[in-house]
Amino acid sequence: MKQNIVKTRLKNNQPVLGILSNSTDPTVAEICGFSGLDFYMIDGEHSPITTAQVQEVVRACEVSGITPLARVRSNDPKLILQFLDAGVVGIMMPGVKTVAEAEALVRAVKYPPLGKRGFGPARSSDYLLGAMNQGEYVQYANEQTLVLPQLEDKEAIDNLDSLLTVEGIDGFVIGPRDLAMSMGYYDGPAHDEVKRTIAGVVEKIRQAGLIAGTTAATGDQAKALIDRGVLFCLNSFAGLLKSAASDFMKGR
User: Fold this and answer.
1) How far apart are CA 123 and CA 59, in angstroms?
2) Fewer Cβ atoms within 10 A, N terminus or C terminus of the chain?
3) Of 34, 35, 36, 46, which residue is the catalytic one?
4) φ and ψ at residue 67, rounded to 5 degrees
5) What is this structure's pTM?
6) Which 3 state secondary structure label does DSSP give 24?
7) Which structural domain range is residue 229 located in?
8) 191 catalytically annotated
9) What angle do CA 206, 210, 212 make, to 5 degrees?
10) Total structural domains in the chain?
11) Is residue 239 within 8 Å of residue 19, measured between CB atoms?
12) Over the stretch 123-163, which tens digit does the pLDDT of each residue have?
């Protein structure tokens, strides 16, 4: 198993910037890696990507030095297992609202005694052909894997104090668009009430000693978030391409 450089940076209170991508093409991940981004988040929720394709995307990430993470479409331990066995080293789970859902996510990501992840000689464990024996790998994997529930619903915000106490969670990623929708703002998160809610959530997450994450459309937005203590910033692949294209087209 590769070292999770993103988790190491986060533990050292260093920010990480990456991309959420719904592409099934490993070349996209490879280019993102060589561009210098910290992580490549495979979007298994809003994309048709299969677990077989995940393995090829992860290989491209490993070649180009970018940390492979994934947003998985459902809190299904067998599905999460397939992503992890393919070599993904962190899971972001959308729509987590309750303590029970957060605890189920931890159980799915972590091996015993921290969770109930099933063991198999897969890519993640070097097929048990590497330097680590099973016991060493299990301990190392539990240390390296990231667990990031995504807060996208008003119910999750109402339950935040309890969610912050769930053992095994590294942090929470706020999804502004879905959160705004659940608050009754169907046109997006650019409303003062939504902004105040997100700011309050970030502060609570930080006070609990956990990682706060959310989306950033531009470098300036990312810097502003980092200045407020948000260490995990992600843009969409489409959004990053659009901003780069718009900047390039200014020369026409």
Assistant:
1) 10
2) C
3) 46
4) -75, 125
5) 0.96
6) coil
7) 5-249
8) no
9) 65
10) 1
11) no
12) 999 999 999 999 999 999 999 999 999 999 999 999 999 99
